[in-house]
Amino acid sequence: MATLLCLIAVFLAGTTIRGAVGQEDGFLSIDCGLDAADSGYKDTKTGIVYVSDGPYVDGGENHRVAADQESGFGRPEKTVRSFPSGERNCYALPTVAGAKYLVRVVTVYGNYDGKNSSSSTLQFDLYLGVNYWDTVHADASDVYEALFVARASWAPVCLVKTGSGVPFVSRVDLRLLGSELYPGLTANQSMNLYIRHNMGSNIYIIKYRDDRYDRFWWQGNSNPLWKNISTSSAVAVNSNFAEPLAVMQTAVEGIRTNTTVEISWESKTASEFIVAVHFADFQNSQLRQFNISISNRLGRDNYSPPYLATAGLMGWTGWSSDGKYDISLEATAASKLPPILNAVEAYIPIDHANPMTLPKDFDIIMSIKLEYRIKKNWTGDPCFPAAWDGVKCSNPSANTSRIISLDLSNSNLHGTISSNFTLFTALEYFFDSDRDTCNKSIHDVNPSQQKSKANRSAILAMSVVVPVMAIVVLVLACLIWRQKRKNNISADVPPRESEPDIVPASRKNYGDTLQTVENRRFTYKDLEKITNKFSQFIGQGGFGLVYYGRLEDDTEVAVKMRSELSSHGLDEFLAEVQSLTKVHHRNLVSFVGYCWEKDHLALVYEYMSQGTLYDHLRGNNGVRETLSWRTRVRVVVEAAQGIDYLHKGCSPPIIHRDVKTQNILLGQNLQAKIADFGLCKTYLSDTQTHISVAPAGSAGYMDPEYYHTGRLTESSDIYNFGVVLLEIVTGESPMLPGLGHIVQRVKKKIDAGNISLVADARLRGAYDVSSMWKVVDIALLCTADIGAQRPTMAAVVVQLKESLALEEARADSGFKSTGATSDTAISMSEFGPLAR
Length: 836
Ligand SMILES: *[C@@H]1O[C@H](CO)[C@@H](O)[C@H](O)[C@H]1NC(C)=O
Ligand SMILES: *[C@@H]1O[C@H](CO)[C@@H](O)[C@H](O)[C@H]1NC(C)=O
Ligand SMILES: *[C@@H]1O[C@H](CO)[C@@H](O)[C@H](O)[C@H]1NC(C)=O
Ligand SMILES: *[C@@H]1O[C@H](CO)[C@@H](O)[C@H](O)[C@H]1NC(C)=O
Ligand SMILES: *[C@@H]1O[C@H](CO)[C@@H](O)[C@H](O)[C@H]1NC(C)=O
Ligand SMILES: *[C@@H]1O[C@H](CO)[C@@H](O)[C@H](O)[C@H]1NC(C)=O
Ligand SMILES: *[C@@H]1O[C@H](CO)[C@@H](O)[C@H](O)[C@H]1NC(C)=O
Ligand SMILES: *[C@@H]1O[C@H](CO)[C@@H](O)[C@H](O)[C@H]1NC(C)=O
Ligand SMILES: *[C@@H]1O[C@H](CO)[C@@H](O)[C@H](O)[C@H]1NC(C)=O
Prior knowledge:
The chain is of the alpha+beta class. The chain is built from 17 helices and 43 strands. It folds into 5 domains: about 1-190, Jelly Rolls; about 195-350, Jelly Rolls; about 355-485, Leucine-rich repeat, LRR (right-handed beta-alpha superhelix), CATH 3.80.10; about 505-605, Phosphorylase Kinase, domain 1; about 620-825, Orthogonal Bundle (Transferase(Phosphotransferase), domain 1). This is Protein kinase domain-containing protein. It is found in: Cell membrane.
């Protein structure tokens, strides 16, 4: 069973298969309708291994042929899969793009449905991808074979209803052909087998192992004007056709030298044929020479077959007005022997006019389908004849369509977001969730991130989300983290021996639906290069040291290396990476990628050139000018929007847990973004509205309610944000030794009724008083002791925007308040009391 699973995995990987003993490379033999438990049996005659069709097809039902007929069929034909629902059902066969294949569909009705159907009541069509291949009749020929060049990593073979009964199939064979085979076979020319005859043989059918590629060579007709000849000598192989020796060792020749050997047929459906004729002479003592004509068209005059070697000729019949086609061999005057014919093939060209999905996009969506095991009635070509459910394609007037939109709502996904998504270069929208959140089009993404095309795929990776999985991973990370705490294992875990450490643990709990994060992954070497060997140190965060770096395309990045002493463990690292991957907003610091090697953990973010709000308020790190009130308010509006997005923009909500001025970063134009979200802080479920973890956060920002209860909710972020607001008002630290906490200090001063005592002296009165009051008012509401009394972040954003508007009106009116004490006093008396 293990071998079998292995085998299936190999099939799925789209690689060629080296099967059980003796089976050729590149054989995939599917016994349709076979129970998965029986998959992998070996055909006793040929040694070919048959697998069940489960991994290759989604719909359909399994059946057995009628008991009274069973004995007449080989094992693969004893079961069938039928497709009562859906107009079009397809098998997806793993292929290598550009390689040549033979595909064979065997349909043996065997009255599997007990309806005694006949060819008049049971018919359906076969399609090779988007292209019509043949029509199956219940009681007619039961073998359909085609040669094609694979366009992508998957070749769809479709059974399409035509209104006469339920399509079914017994067996599907895929055989990889040598690249030299059938020179006329090209990517835009597939061929449907019409006849393949072995002349002069008394064997009904020759196939594998005589034919290395498992082509079927049926016994040709007999004709009173021909006689059978054969040899037991070896006949040299022809690399363009690789005819089996057993086929080439028999032939027919005319009964007299001047007898024309002619093969003719009539077709009302096909308007042209591709023909291959195969010759090998068994004697070289006398001249055998003849003219070959194929429907009076392509010919070869004065042709002599090689001695004990094979020669194959291939050509087109051309279109025939009466539907009659023939191959005729006529001896020349000089010939001493009649014409000879060893084998003949005729194919109907498969029309390739139908548009199809760009092969690359097809491969990607198939990867996604497989990776997430999407059972969404996704079958055949993604765009044609109709787009898959949830898929939108570019203008189909072009012959190859691109996938431009993907909606995975309600698809019951499993797995993390995969970098496979980033491969859709034409994707414009991605709808990921069954909630109305995190539904972002690429155009919603921060435009500054869109400047380089190369970046675009990375952005997409960040803006797409598969929430179900993200929850699982975050919850898991939480569980691991909590477990660690319980076990009293220090959070500063020593570097792990190797990265897979955490992965098997995850797998153990969640099966293989859980995978590690897919995002831009850097090697330590990359980081060395990006940071010029960590030459520019730019700060220290909770995670570790931060270095400046530049990517290949000159994008500036901040590389956060995990230090050994960091209190962040691997689990938190994983959690952070997960949530970074999950969210994207213009007021959240963009995540570029990560490094996860033996002894090195690192996170790579966009570089925020102007440092932290903390630095600006404190005058640290070379900041000389204090921020104006207007800038301060704008910065907190933006920061509030970022936090609001964490709380409400994503499902489940993310609690930042460490909102502080050090985590509000400023970019080139002092635009603000929230950093360091991504610790373990996701709600476990909708019903459980908080998670209990040991109190965390930074000194001076501790939410008293959280401190007492250990219940972490969004309102803790609100509290912390209130502290941030008081900092921009006062310019002071939350904690001043001997003076108490900022909330108490501000409250005291406000009780004294004087806003100028509260406002940062460095502003030198340059602020709109009502704007300032409004911020203080919001801050005090945010820092209410009881979480339930605090406003939501959305309400905070609205209020702060009003404050900003007041300040902007002041600044834009050109009113420069220098001393402004009297104004302040007036304002204070007007607004002060209302502030509380
Ligand atoms: C697949 O979807 C198509 C339309 O999207 C529908 O007509 C067909 O019945 C579905 N097939 C199955 C098996 O659900
Ligand atoms: C189907 O054919 C079998 C014999 O081949 C016969 O016994 C049976 O009655 C037939 N059933 C129907 C529904 O015609
Ligand atoms: C088919 O492809 C070949 C090259 O592989 C090209 O020369 C030929 O023009 C194509 N034919 C059609 C009908 O597109
Ligand atoms: C001669 O070969 C033909 C196939 O080309 C076959 O049908 C026939 O049975 C053979 N005759 C004898 C006597 O073997
Ligand atoms: C073929 O040759 C024979 C003599 O070998 C002759 O009788 C016959 O007429 C010739 N047939 C044709 C069509 O030339
Ligand atoms: C065979 O072809 C040659 C060269 O075209 C021609 O001269 C000759 O008449 C042809 N023979 C027959 C029997 O058609
Ligand atoms: C894409 O999906 C396939 C199939 O699930 C998986 O094997 C492969 O690793 C993925 N590729 C990338 C780049 O994520
Ligand atoms: C594109 O499709 C049209 C029919 O839709 C067909 O005529 C044309 O040959 C196709 N072109 C190529 C390059 O396949
Ligand atoms: C997602 O957004 C698109 C447009 O931006 C909209 O058409 C679609 O209905 C939204 N989907 C959900 C589930 O909200």
